[in-house]
Amino acid sequence: MWCPLDGVVNGKLEQIIHLRNDQEDFTTVPDLISLQYLHEPELLYAVCDRYAHDFIYTYIGEILLSFNPFQRLNIYSHKYVQTYATSSDQDASLPPHVFAIAANAYKSLCDDKKNQSILVSGESGAGKTENTKFLMQYLTDVGAMDVSLTTSPCKASMTKRGGSRGKAAAPTAQIQTQILQTNPILEAFGNARTVRNDNSSRFGKFIELQFGDHHKI
């Protein structure tokens, strides 16, 4: 990924890309909608500044912008799943994350009792497949999580029905593992090397996860 930060040798960056916002550190700007001026040079500089500091996720309103970090980041563990699963809808203290998108979909599922959709799009090699895996990881993990650890809408729904997700933890965990293990099978038959990506998905994906009455996968 080319970044305007790499092109500054002499002179001020403002003279090159004409920054208009009085903002020097964009790592503190998780949502670009909050900027006073929204134009291409400013947005490009903002995401590049965040990317340079390993902030690969940035909100643009309800849209999550994601960049391939080309390295392993320790931000996808079960601890992070629990953090976003127990957060409120508008927890500004949590950084943008693909888990937050999955969390909002799951909360809406519990709240509204309606099907939810998440659209993942982007250029080849941008990280669509990996982010889809992380979405599935979160949803299957939360779908097997004990009711005491989930957010209030799901917890209230479970309590009202008198159910307990902990009692069926073992079968649910097995289903969770089976769902996640479908990814390498699909990739083995449907991926190929291209000029832009050594492991490019050469097919479209429609993935459907079904949850029961107690919001258990």
Automatic annotation (TrEMBL):
Keywords per UniProt: Actin-binding, ATP-binding, Motor protein, Myosin, Nucleotide-binding
GO biological process, one term: actin filament organization
SUPFAM superfamilies attached to this UniProt entry: P-loop containing nucleoside triphosphate hydrolases
InterPro entries assigned: Kinesin_motor_dom_sf, Myosin_head_motor_dom-like, P-loop_NTPase
Residues that, per the record, bind ATP: G122, E123, S124, G125, A126, G127, K128, T129
One GO term describing the cellular component: cytoplasm
Molecular function, one GO term: actin filament binding
Similarity comment: Belongs to the TRAFAC class myosin-kinesin ATPase superfamily. Myosin family.
Name of protein: Myosin motor domain-containing protein
Source organism phylogeny: Eukaryota, Sar, Stramenopiles, Oomycota, Saprolegniomycetes
